[in-house]
């Protein structure tokens, strides 16, 4: 489309370069350009997608049954350390295929990450939005609860509660989810307060919109980008806590293939076969790194003015 | 005629960026004599602030400054080291900024900030520096000056803070003050007071001042000389009488049409406007920078625009006929 | 100012009370604590005896205040497992954990603040990118895995440092690095962000216009402002670090309170767990209280309001 550029005073030039400079890209184009130009976001997203596919299609991809023991083939080295392609990443101390356990382990980590982030997200967002929107006494109560929650040592409490209730995947996920709502509450409270003070919220109230309607159509869309960033950060947090609990032997119980548990099981053999510890730890690190990269990237892309 | 205090030739500021280099200041020339007040006028984004920052050597790291000459009191500012510039700043050239609310450090007292420049540039006991601070606070019209020294910026109003900023600039009795829209952020009544104060002090202490403003009324009252800036160029420079009574550049005429004049502007008669916006500053501009908004624009405006002169009254426009091209001598 | 400190103190007290109630309630999470203490195969009469001996037959609030009254005096009851007063057990171990926490925080601050400042002075430079890489890795690396790698490299391969124990300062080097690296990214990022913010502010330009040297601008005018939020963060991180010492201490077999927590949790030794949760929480509460008061002193705007 050719743009006819006219001098506002009427004196027209054909395609004056000075006037053409004034026209720039649309906001949508700028967002797309930021996404495609953000390496961290792209790399993080790709790694997460890959690991998620791995978790979903684990039964199709895994070369062996992750629970099948074979005491004859214990601690076979990975293929790059002289092992065979039968077990590309070797076998563990019970002769279970390490690659298959790793693939199934992605299910545990991702499940915990997603479900715990959803639980804590619902709790924390509700509290934070309520505190930020209603202020006053509601805010005082929520702020107090946040303070109480922050004072409790997460790993210790999670460990104690899981130890008492028994370390099933459900218990670990629920406990972690119930403990990690603090950042949601803090961030959502702050963002809601900010948005609430804007003119368009006052305008909505002035035309008689109900409180739920304002919360849903005015507040939520404007704090959603911050929410997404916190979701990713807390997913990573939950995954790390599960791994730590399982590593300490008080989280997910054997024989469930959890990456933290695999590190823990490999620990005793670490001085002879360091790869038993290195491989699951490296995968865990990669997943958490990817999630954090994506979170940082989302923050950069959706709120470029807040970039630090 | 004595040599000027500040002499600038072909000053340029460039901002390299991903989508092409920006040229917010495109080769400007001017001289400032001792004790003279030069007002730089122009709309937002015309490069006024960057010009003043480049004189002080305070441009950001990503900005590039170049010039054919930049001399202050015989010192070549272009070749000056960081150390030499630091010795000049605050001591012999001082600056007053637009935003009094944020230009003071929130965590230090007024007193500490006032005496900082003095202690940096002159060896003197703290007590003596504080006495000087009190003296200057009184001079800028702050009551109970001694007790103000222990106060923090947030305890003062905007007008008071700007008075403090003025006192701070005067601490070492500089030869030149650059005031970058010093009253823009203040209430209208305070604006007049602060400007009057600044003007009186500059005259009293016989300093030179570059006052950046877009208030033409102020210019008419305080300036010795005027420089009209548009899109990074000085489109017209001259004495107040020359520029205001016989504006030679269409942009200056447009600016002057925007203000009502008692006796001239009739009741209900619309004020002038300049349509359009300042062009983007990416890339070099061939021809006149004002042509996209100029009522007289024509094909000739796309060609090179020589700087022309009438008895030291300089302008850049092809349309006002009958004047000779300028020599390379400014103002 | 005094009002602020008093209000803040009141809040801290209220939070402590709530946390103490929550940690007290832990023993009821498992169902009937008397059954748990009496052990498997105990008869009804045994359980009843335990119930009245420990006072579990009283209303919960009465039990709570009785427990709290003792706890305030430093008596957390006897450990089920070690059969020793919990207070003695914890006191014995706490010094190691506190030492480790201080070392870790010291390490984090010494690395994070200069890195953050330099990164902010030259955004997008090599230093900035390296610092960012360090912080991104630090936020993602599981501390237990990082600890194990350090052991393999420095204790086993290079034989520079002992892998476990508490005999000398050498034992604290690797735990300090692991714990400090956990807190370092957040502090680094906040310092960098704060400095970037401050360095773009008008008063920095004022300082330069006065002829201040770059160092003076950075530290006297810049860092002095940017450090205020870092103080709060460091306090919070310090609390988190002590809570996180459980992982680090168990990797390096450091005989501290974190290790004790792991032992007592694994052995269902609830009085010890309760006491440790409360003590770690109290550390956090006290640290953040100190930080808030310190902040009020550092920031004149807060001091006078």
From TrEMBL, chain A:
Protein name stated in the entry: ABC transporter permease
Domain annotation ABC transmembrane type-1: ranges: 106-295
Record's keyword annotation contains Membrane: yes
Bilayer-spanning residue ranges: 40-62, 108-134, 154-181, 227-252, 272-291
PANTHER family, per the entry: OLIGOPEPTIDE TRANSPORT SYSTEM PERMEASE PROTEIN APPC, PEPTIDE ABC TRANSPORTER PERMEASE PROTEIN
Superkingdom to which the source organism belongs: Bacteria
Membrane topology value: Multi-pass membrane protein
Subcellular location: Cell membrane
Alphabetical UniProt keywords: Cell membrane, Membrane, Transmembrane, Transmembrane helix, Transport
Primary residence: membrane
TrEMBL record, chain B:
Chief location of this protein within or outside the cell: membrane
Keyword match Membrane: yes
Location of this chain's protein in the cell: Cell inner membrane
Protein name: ABC transporter ATP-binding protein
Domain ABC transporter intervals: 6-256
Single GO molecular function: ATP binding
UniProt cross-references to CDD domains, sorted A to Z: ABC_NikE_OppD_transporters
Keyword Nucleotide-binding: yes
SMART domains listed in its UniProt record: AAA (SM00382)
Family: Belongs to the ABC transporter superfamily.
UniProtKB keywords: ATP-binding, Cell membrane, Membrane, Nucleotide-binding, Transport
Mode of membrane association: Peripheral membrane protein
SUPFAM superfamilies: P-loop containing nucleoside triphosphate hydrolases
UniProtKB/TrEMBL annotation, chain C:
One matching Pfam family: BPD_transp_1
Transmembrane segments: 98-120, 132-160, 172-191, 226-253, 273-298
SUPFAM superfamilies: MetI-like
Gene3D superfamilies: MetI-like
Membrane topology summary: Multi-pass membrane protein
Keywords, alphabetical: Cell membrane, Membrane, Transmembrane, Transmembrane helix, Transport
Positions of the ABC transmembrane type-1 domain: 94-291
Superkingdom of source: Bacteria
Cellular compartments annotated: Cell membrane
UniProt similarity note: Belongs to the binding-protein-dependent transport system permease family.
Protein's name according to its UniProt entry: ABC transporter permease
Organism: Arenibacterium halophilum
Lineage of origin: Bacteria, Pseudomonadati, Pseudomonadota, Alphaproteobacteria, Rhodobacterales
């Amino acid at each position: 489309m050719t743009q006819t550029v006219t001098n506002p005073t009427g004196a027209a030039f054909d395609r004056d370069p000075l006037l053409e400079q004034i026209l720039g890209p649309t906001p949508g184009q700028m967002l797309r350009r930021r996404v495609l130009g953000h390496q961290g976001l792209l790399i993080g997203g790709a790694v997460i997608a890959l690991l998620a596919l791995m978790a979903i299609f684990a039964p199709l991809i895994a070369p062996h049954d992750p629970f099948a023991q074979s005491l004859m083939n214990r601690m076979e080295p990975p293929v790059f350390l002289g092992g065979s392609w039968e077990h590309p990443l070797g076998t563990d101390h019970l002769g279970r295929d390490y690659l298959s356990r790793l693939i199934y382990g992605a299910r545990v980590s991702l499940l915990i990450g997603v479900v715990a982030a959803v639980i804590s997200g619902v709790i924390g967002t509700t509290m934070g939005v309520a505190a930020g929107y209603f202020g006053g006494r509601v805010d005082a109560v929520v702020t107090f609860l946040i303070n109480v929650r922050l004072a409790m040592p997460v790993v210790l409490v999670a460990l104690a509660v899981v130890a008492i209730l028994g370390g099933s995947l459900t218990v670990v996920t629920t406990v972690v989810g119930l403990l990690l709502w603090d950042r949601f509450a803090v961030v959502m409270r702050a963002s809601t307060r900010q948005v609430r003070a804007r003119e368009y919220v006052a305008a909505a109230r002035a035309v008689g919109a109900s409180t739920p309607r304002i919360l849903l159509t005015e507040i939520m869309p404007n704090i959603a980008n911050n929410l997404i960033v916190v979701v990713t950060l807390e997913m990573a947090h939950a995954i790390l806590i599960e791994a730590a609990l399982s590593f300490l032997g008080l989280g997910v119980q054997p024989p469930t293939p959890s990456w933290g548990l695999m590190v823990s099981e490999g620990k005793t053999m670490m001085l002879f076969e360091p790869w038993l510890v290195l491989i699951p730890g490296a995968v865990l690190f990669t997943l958490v790194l990817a999630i954090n990269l994506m979170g940082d990237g989302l923050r950069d892309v959706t709120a470029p003015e807040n970039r630090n | 005629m004595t040599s000027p205090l500040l002499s600038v030739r072909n000053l340029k500021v460039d901002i390299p960026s991903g989508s092409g280099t920006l040229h917010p200041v495109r080769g400007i020339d001017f001289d400032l004599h001792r004790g003279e007040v030069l007002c730089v006028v122009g709309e937002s984004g015309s490069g006024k602030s960057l010009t003043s920052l480049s004189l002080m050597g305070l441009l950001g790291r990503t900005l590039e400054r170049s010039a054919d000459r930049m001399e202050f009191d015989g010192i070549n500012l272009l070749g000056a080291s960081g150390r030499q510039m630091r010795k000049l700043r605050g001591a012999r050239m001082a600056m007053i900024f637009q935003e009094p609310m944020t230009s003071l450090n929130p965590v230090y007292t007024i007193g500490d900030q006032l005496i900082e420049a003095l202690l940096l540039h002159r060896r003197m006991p703290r007590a003596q520096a504080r006495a000087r601070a009190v003296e200057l606070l009184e001079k800028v019209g702050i009551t109970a000056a001694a007790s103000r020294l222990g106060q923090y910026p947030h305890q003062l109003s905007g007008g008071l803070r700007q008075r403090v900023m003025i006192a701070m600039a005067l601490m070492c009795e500089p030869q030149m003050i650059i005031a970058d829209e010093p009253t823009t952020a203040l209430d209208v009544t305070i604006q007049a007071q602060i400007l009057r104060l600044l003007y009186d002090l500059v005259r009293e202490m016989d300093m030179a001042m570059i006052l950046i403003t877009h208030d033409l009324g102020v210019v008419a009252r305080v300036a010795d000389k005027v420089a009209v800036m548009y899109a990074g160029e000085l489109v017209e420079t001259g004495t107040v009488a020359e520029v205001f009574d016989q504006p030679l550049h269409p942009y200056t005429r447009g600016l002057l049409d925007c203000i009502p004049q008692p006796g001239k502007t009739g009741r209900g008669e619309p004020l002038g406007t300049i349509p359009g916006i300042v062009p983007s500053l990416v890339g070099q501009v061939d021809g006149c920078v004002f042509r996209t908004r100029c009522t007289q624009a024509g094909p000739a405006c796309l060609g090179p625009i020589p700087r022309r002169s009438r008895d030291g009254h300089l302008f850049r426009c092809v349309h006002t006929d009958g004047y000779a091209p300028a020599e390379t001598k400014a103002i | 100012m005094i009002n602020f400190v008093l209000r803040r103190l009141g809040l801290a007290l209220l939070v402590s009370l709530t946390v103490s109630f929550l940690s007290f309630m832990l023993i009821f999470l498992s169902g009937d604590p008397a059954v748990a203490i009496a052990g498997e195969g105990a008869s009804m009469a045994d359980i009843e005896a335990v119930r009245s001996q420990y006072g579990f037959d009283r209303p919960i609030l009465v039990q709570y205040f009785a427990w709290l009254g003792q706890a305030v005096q430093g008596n957390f009851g006897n450990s089920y497992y070690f059969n020793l007063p919990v207070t003695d057990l914890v006191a014995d171990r706490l010094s190691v954990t506190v030492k480790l926490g201080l070392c870790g925080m010291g390490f984090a601050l010494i690395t994070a603040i200069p890195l953050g400042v330099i990164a902010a002075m030259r955004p997008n430079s090599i230093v900035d990118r390296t610092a960012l890489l360090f912080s991104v890795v630090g936020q993602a690396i599981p501390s237990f895995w990082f600890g194990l790698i350090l052991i393999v490299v420095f204790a086993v391969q290079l034989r520079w440092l002992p892998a476990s124990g508490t005999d000398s300062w050498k034992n604290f080097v690797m735990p300090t690095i692991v714990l400090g690296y956990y807190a370092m990214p957040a502090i680094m990022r906040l310092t960098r962000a704060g400095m970037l913010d401050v360095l773009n502010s008008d008063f920095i330009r004022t300082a330069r216009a006065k002829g201040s040297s770059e160092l003076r601008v950075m530290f006297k005018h810049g860092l002095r402002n940017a450090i205020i939020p870092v103080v709060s963060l460091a306090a919070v991180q310090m609390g988190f670090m002590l809570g996180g010492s459980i992982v680090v201490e168990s990797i390096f077999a450091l005989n501290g309170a974190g290790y004790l927590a792991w032992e007592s949790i694994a052995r269902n030794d609830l009085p010890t767990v309760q006491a440790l949760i409360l003590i770690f929480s109290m550390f956090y509460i006290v640290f953040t209280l100190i930080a808030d008061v310190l902040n009020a002193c550092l920031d004149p705007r807060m001091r006078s309001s």
